[in-house]
Amino acid sequence: MKSVILSSGLRVALALVATVGIAGRATGAEPDKQFFRSVEGKWVGPGEIVAGKYKGTKFTCSFTGSTPDGKVGMSLDGGCRVGMFTQQMSATIEHKGRQGYKGSFMGGAAGSGLDIIGGNVVDAHKVVFTINRNQLRGVMQALVPDDNSMTVTVAVRVDQQLVPVIGMKLKRVDEVEVGSIAPN
To answer: pLDDT tens digit string along 110-119?
Structure first.
């Protein structure tokens, strides 16, 4: 029973992590495209739930990031593992005209996942976006300080305050030369 509870609680937490690096502002400007290109490729790394009922739970994720042809946005596919349990993950987000960036993780809030309802690419190295599922409201910040590392922090709103709940450090494990990609 404990493993079922842990698995379902971790699914929501990992959903927050899996959506890393897939939001931006409505303009689709060059910093947005640069950020999306910077997370293309294969990423792995450990994470930990740092607050709440599952505080101290450690997990490991592996993702492949790609950008859609002719569109501004991104897809991530992969999975996260805690102990013997692995949860498959997929997320997509695209620029939707005046609506800005919209997306979903594992079918969105109508399914078993989350909706990505907005966001802002601060610059080519940092993104902050809004996540939503029923009463759960939160933000995710992804920082890509160099071509081979990414730090992700997820916070949820509790009584008008954002409380960090997940921290993750990902490393690039492919041979992509990000600096050599020609701008579109």
So the answer is: 888 888 898 8
CA distance 104 to 91: 6
Residue 125 pLDDT greater than 50, yes or no: yes
* pLDDT > 70: percent of the chain: 79
Q: Which residue has the tokens 């050599």?
A: 180
Listing DSSP states for 107-172 in one string gives T-TTTTSEEEEEEEEEETTEEEEEEEETTEEEEEEEEEEETTEEEEEEEEEETTEEEEEEEEEEEE
For residue 77, CA distances in Å to 37, 90, 92, 103, 158 come to 15, 4, 9, 14, 29
In 3D space, the residue among 83, 87, 36 whose CA is nearest the CA of residue 62 turns out to be 87
Residue 36: strand, helix, or coil: helix
H helices, E strands: number in the chain = 2, 10
Length of the chain: 184
- What pLDDT was estimated at residue 178? 55
3 state DSSP class of 61: strand
